[in-house]
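User: Look at the shape:
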Amino acid sequence: MKIKNRKWIGGVLAFGLASSLAVITGRAQTSQPSSKVTAKTANITLLPKTQGDGAWQTLLSNTIKTANQKDLFISASFEVGLFTQTLVSSKNRISDSTTATANVQVRVLLDGSVVQPGQVVYGRRTQTLTATLEGAIANCLSLVTNLDGSVSIVVDPNCVTPETIELILDSMDAASFNFVAVDVPQGVHTISVQARIDTAGAAQTGSWSAFGTVGKGSVTVESVRLIKDPNVVFDVP
């Protein structure tokens, strides 16, 4: 009798273990476990040098499952590169000015909606170069004898060629910003980090160019419960 009970108990345990394994395997295939933190990194150039008014490009994307209504604390960090070149060309003391602007913006989307505080400038540079030059007068000089017998040196303004000055700046820095999504409902959510590059410039007789780039990056998403207090206290000295 004891032997039969042992066999029966052993059979129940074996069935229970098999059932548990089947349930666990099924969950792994059809759903995602809830988590408090998720992260993604990239060690390559995410957005190459771009010029003009660029569209939003998704750099990093990840998912997180919230067990109940939570707030999401999202931190996005990137290397941001800016390149600006300005050249001025001036002669006969006529001022010339050239401007170049490069701008890199980043935003975070939660299930396709923009997360507060919206788009953030991770890098911006406006470079302006102005010069007033005489110009190159080589081979443009002539000697003229005046009525009184004196000799004057005369410059032919049509012969003068412009002088040029050029300024180039190329930089790469790391920037980070925190985005906050409040009252996120229960379920699986997709967090996407996007960036865009805008460049512009203006020149009179010179030239300009501007580029922006995004290098390595990372994004971390933390599920938290934030204290919501609209009152912000500032210490006034």
Q: What stands out?
A: The chain has two domains: 1-31, 34-131+162-224. The chain has one helix and twelve strands. The longest strand covers residues 163-184. The chain has a mean pLDDT of 83.
